[in-house]
């Protein structure tokens, strides 16, 4: 797997001795894969030079940001983008921010909040790259997926620098689609480095109005943080409903009335995880909250742009919840709990406590689509978890799923987790089987297609998209240096 | 058990990178969001808390393969515990302990840093982590202090190596003694009978040397019949309070840091801070007084069978929640005329001064780089001075100030209290 001395020296000439390493001892910290080398480029020019060398020496490469997850063929050149960590611009007038790949969301978000602005925090968490493509709890008001990407600077797999959208014809980042080349369909299949070949070196992100404080008044010592006061124009609540249909009815009306700053269809296990400071507390709280709720539910944050606006939103929310037979979870109304879950869900996207802490790992089936349809599928997928829960193979979450509408609409994200111990082979196998079965069920029963699943099976039902995509990939990556794999965060 | 004991914890790392940053709710902007000096300086993920436990887990599984790179990773870490705090906001797993145990394993396997070997050779020969000049208690000449090894005292002031022998640091010992005298505390020093606490040797991975020192100190304390030890050094505080307890040597000894002692004396009216000190300051939390100074928790148990990582009996993690954070702040706020402002990274998520883990000996350039980052943060508050509560921090900051030509002043808290009581 090791690079020859000549090739190593060529890469070293680009980034310097300190920023390249092929010692196998570091590889366990890079997803335990035998990479040919790990390289830390510092800027676009260095990325370009590395990619050109990969073409010259026919080496596969892969670029990664904070690197939460990923799949890597052995022997690749791993580009750790950690040194590319600058906020290039925050354009308050035109409401976009330009960042390099290793600016994490928590950093950009904090800078934006000071300026009365905000952004989409992806579900992977504020510890991940700000330019990451994806969905998050704030999709209601900050949209999701590729909708937030404007102009992008992209080093293609052949080592050319492509500037998309307005950046292609000027020095402006305000638009991803022109004046200049729009490559949205290719570039935004995953930003930053994901299934799109090449490396994204800068991206402009759409930013939004933030009616909250410049900084949340967090007090206490970790992990026992709370807010010294709830911002006067903000409120967080969790509502449970008598049925999935009633919950959906309330969700769609909240969207129609455009009143929720955040709407997150937490299941009660996720609520417990976010409040509890450790696993023991979480287990107890989950049982307690499960008794308090009447059925499925969602978490809402309201944020008023004025006192009158806030009052209106509260009244509208109350009416919508009442009409759907909803019930507020008293535990969340406690200001201490309300404050911290509000702050967590705005700032962190709450992710790690929900996903990794209870069991050590999780498997997820995420889907973007028509919410009522995907919810119906998720109910079945949740029920299918119950035998695994009863056998103690996965963490008991009551068979829960979660999701939310995007842009206050009926389209949205639905997702379901299985949390399990990755060191337990029986649990791992059971979760893999569940994932396969439920993905197949989604396709066979015509709910949706899980594109991370077997594309050869799904492609023919979707205009053979996979064959077209392969042709595009071959065209832009003739030497095949940028391998396909799952999304990276 | 050593590193093996933490196998499950290390395998738990989800590689989320939270260990690189201060707790995410506390990130206040682009600047000062990093929490780990090692990953901040060397950039490869392997230098982060997560990367270190990834490597530890792999080596337990596949065998220990030492290389120069591995030793560079191991010895370029202050073992400051910041990664553990950030991780433990969300995760239930040990981070700092396995990093420490990995280093102990390296030393046990003879994979040491030559610079640290030299320091430890000095410890073995002379009972000190710094070069010895004169006798341990020479600094106390003329102060008329009791010798706790010979006279009955309520409190033993354990001075520590750096404060005892470094001519530039002896002022801290004299200030501490004057404060205790002024408050009428019946205290003494052990003079020549004092020896190194062993704390820094432990941080460097030399567990046996630490244990030797700990046993010597506890034998002397037992002989003297002392019930309370006061240190003005964060390393000494952590050694007596946490590490001696971790290894079952502390018994019922009460251990106080001088800032806790002064806070209590001021609160009870036994010490009056009446003189004005006209200075704008910010406070640097020493790692081993703050997050790593929280009491050791003895726990033995097993994972409960089933889906969830819960234990019988429940495991209480040391997440940095119970370090000494408020007493030094209370003391500073009690000094008339002093203007106090906070930095971005404080308390449990404070940035290290750079000296921890023996880095000031094994890689002084990296220690200085770490200190510079902290000085920049201190300057950003508008402070004229950075105040700390540990001589190792003060020395590292002073060296960094001299290296940068900055006009920022550096004080230990006892120096300002001394000014306020004169």
Rg of Cα set of chain A: 23 Å
Proportion in helices of chain A: 25-40%
Structural class by helix and strand composition of chain B: alpha/beta
Helical content of chain B, roughly? 40-55%
- The strand line-up of the biggest sheet of chain B is 1-3-2-4-5
Summed over residues and divided by their number, the pLDDT of chain B gives a mean of 97
**Rough outline of chain B:** globular
Beta-strand share of residues of chain B: 5-15%
The largest sheet of chain B is: 5 strands, parallel
Total count of strands of chain B: 11
Task: Name the descriptors.
heterodimer; A: 489 residues; alpha+beta; 5-stranded antiparallel beta sheet; 4-stranded mixed beta sheet; globular; B: 422 residues; alpha/beta; 5-stranded parallel beta sheet; 9% strand
Could you walk me through the main structural features you see in this protein, from its secondary elements to its overall organization?
The complex is a heterodimer of chains A (489) and B (422). Chain A is an alpha+beta fold and 489 residues long. Chain A has 17 helices and 20 strands. In chain A, α1 (5-15) runs antiparallel to α2 (44-57), α6 packs antiparallel against α9 and α7 (268-275) packs across α8 (279-292). The longest helix of chain A is centred in the C-terminal third of the chain and has 20 residues, at 425-444. With 422 residues, chain B is of the alpha/beta class. Chain B has helices at residues 7-11, 37-42, 49-62, 68-75, 82-88, 96-108, 114-126, 161-165, 170-182, 199-204, 207-224, 234-246, 258-267, 326-334, 359-362, 364-380, 391-404, 413-421; strands at residues 146-147, 155-158, 187-189, 228-231, 254-257, 279-283, 302-303, 311-312, 338-341, 385-388, 409-412. The longest helix of chain B is centred in the middle third of the chain and has 18 residues, at 207-224. The model of chain B has no long low-confidence stretch (mean pLDDT 97). Chains A and B meet through α3, α8, α11 and α12 of A and α3, α4 and α5 of B.
């Amino acid at each position: 797997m090791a690079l020859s001395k000549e090739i190593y020296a060529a890469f070293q000439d680009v980034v310097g001795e300190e920023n390249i390493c092929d010692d196998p001892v570091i590889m366990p910290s890079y997803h335990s894969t035998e990479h040919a080398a790990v390289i830390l480029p510092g800027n676009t020019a260095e990325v370009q030079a590395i990619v050109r060398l990969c073409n010259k020496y026919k080496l596969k490469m892969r670029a990664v940001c904070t690197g939460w997850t990923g799949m890597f063929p052995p022997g690749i050149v791993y580009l750790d983008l950690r040194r590319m960590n600058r906020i290039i611009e925050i354009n308050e007038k035109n409401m976009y921010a330009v960042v390099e790949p290793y600016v994490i969301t928590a950093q950009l978000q904090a800078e934006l909040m000071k300026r009365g602005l905000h952004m989409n925090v992806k579900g992977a968490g504020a510890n991940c790259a700000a330019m990451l493509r994806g969905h998050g709890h704030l999709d209601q008001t900050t949209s999701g997926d590729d909708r937030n990407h404007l102009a992008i600077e992209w080093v293609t797999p052949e080592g050319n620098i492509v500037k998309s959208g307005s950046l292609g014809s000027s020095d402006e980042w305000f638009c991803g689609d022109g004046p200049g080349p729009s490559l949205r369909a290719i570039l935004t299949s995953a930003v930053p480095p994901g299934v799109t070949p090449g490396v994204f070196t800068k991206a402009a992100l759409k930013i939004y109005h933030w009616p909250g404080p410049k900084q949340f008044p967090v007090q206490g010592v970790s992990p026992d943080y709370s807010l010294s006061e709830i911002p006067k124009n903000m409120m967080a609540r969790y509502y449970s409903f008598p049925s999935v249909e009633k919950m959906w009815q309330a969700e769609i009306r909240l969207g129609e009335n455009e009143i929720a700053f955040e709407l997150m269809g937490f299941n009660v296990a996720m609520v417990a995880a976010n409040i509890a400071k450790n696993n023991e507390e979480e287990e107890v709280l989950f049982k307690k909250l499960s008794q308090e709720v009447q059925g499925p539910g969602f978490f809402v944050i309201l944020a008023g742009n004025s006192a009158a606006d806030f009052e209106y939103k509260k009244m509208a929310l109350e009416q919508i919840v009442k009409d759907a037979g909803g019930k507020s979870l008293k535990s969340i109304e406690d200001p201490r709990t309300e404050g911290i879950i509000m702050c967590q869900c705005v700032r962190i996207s709450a992710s790690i406590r929900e996903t990794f802490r209870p069991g050590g790992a999780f498997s997820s089936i995420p889907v973007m689509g028509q919410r009522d349809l995907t919810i119906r599928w998720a109910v079945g997928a949740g029920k299918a978890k119950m035998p695994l829960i009863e056998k103690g193979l996965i963490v008991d979450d009551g068979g829960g799923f979660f999701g939310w509408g995007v842009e206050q609409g009926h389209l949205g994200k639905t997702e379901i987790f299985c949390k399990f111990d990755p060191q337990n082979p029986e649990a791992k196998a059971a979760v893999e089987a569940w994932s396969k079965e439920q993905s197949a069920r989604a396709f066979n029963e015509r709910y949706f297609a899980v594109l991370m699943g077997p594309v050869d099976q799904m492609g023919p039902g979707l205009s053979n998209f996979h064959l077209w995509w392969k042709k595009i990939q071959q065209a832009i990556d003739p030497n095949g240096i940028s391998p396909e794999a799952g999304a990276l965060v | 058990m050593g590193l093996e004991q933490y196998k499950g914890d290390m395998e738990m790392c989800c590689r989320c990178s939270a260990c690189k940053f201060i707790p995410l709710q506390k990130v206040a902007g682009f600047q000062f969001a990093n929490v780990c000096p090692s990953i901040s300086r060397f950039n490869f993920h392997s230098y982060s808390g997560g990367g270190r436990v990834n490597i530890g887990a792999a080596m337990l599984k596949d065998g220990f393969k030492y290389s120069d790179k591995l030793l560079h990773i191991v010895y370029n870490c202050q073992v400051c515990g910041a990664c553990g705090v950030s991780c433990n906001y969300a995760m239930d797993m040990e981070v700092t302990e396995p990093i420490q145990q990995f280093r102990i394993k390296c030393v046990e396997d003879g994979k040491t840093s030559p610079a640290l070997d030299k320091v430890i050779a000095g410890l073995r020969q002379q009972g000190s982590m710094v070069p010895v000049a004169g006798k341990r208690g020479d600094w106390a000449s003329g102060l008329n202090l009791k010798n706790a090894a010979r006279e009955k005292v309520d409190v033993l002031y354990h001075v520590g190596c750096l404060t005892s022998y470094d001519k530039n640091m002896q002022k801290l010992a004299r200030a501490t003694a004057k404060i205790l005298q002024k408050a009428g505390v019946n205290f003494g020093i052990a003079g020549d009978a004092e020896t190194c606490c062993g704390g820094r040797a432990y941080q460097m991975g030399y567990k046996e040397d630490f244990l030797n020192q700990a046993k010597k100190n506890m034998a002397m304390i037992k002989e003297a019949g002392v019930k309370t030890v006061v240190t003005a050094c964060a390393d000494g505080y952590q050694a007596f309070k946490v590490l001696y307890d971790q290894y079952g040597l502390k018994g019922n000894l009460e251990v106080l840091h001088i800032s806790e002692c002064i806070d209590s004396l001021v609160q009870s009216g036994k010490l009056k801070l009446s003189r004005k000190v006209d200075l704008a300051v910010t406070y640097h939390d020493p790692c081993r007084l703050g997050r790593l100074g929280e009491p050791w928790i003895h726990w033995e148990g097993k994972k409960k069978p089933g889906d969830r990582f819960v234990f019988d009996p429940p495991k209480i993690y040391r997440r940095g929640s119970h370090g000494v954070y408020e007493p030094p702040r209370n003391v500073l706020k009690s000094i008339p005329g002093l203007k106090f402002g906070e930095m971005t990274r404080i308390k449990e998520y404070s940035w290290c001064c750079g000296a921890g883990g023996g880095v000031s000996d094994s890689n002084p350039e990296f220690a200085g780089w770490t200190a510079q980052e902290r000085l920049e943060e201190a300057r950003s508050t508008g402070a004229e001075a950075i105040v700390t509560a540990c001589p190792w921090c003060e020395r590292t900051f002073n060296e960094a100030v001299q290296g940068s030509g900055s006009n920022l002043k550096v004080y230990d808290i006892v120096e300002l209290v001394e000014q306020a009581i004169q």
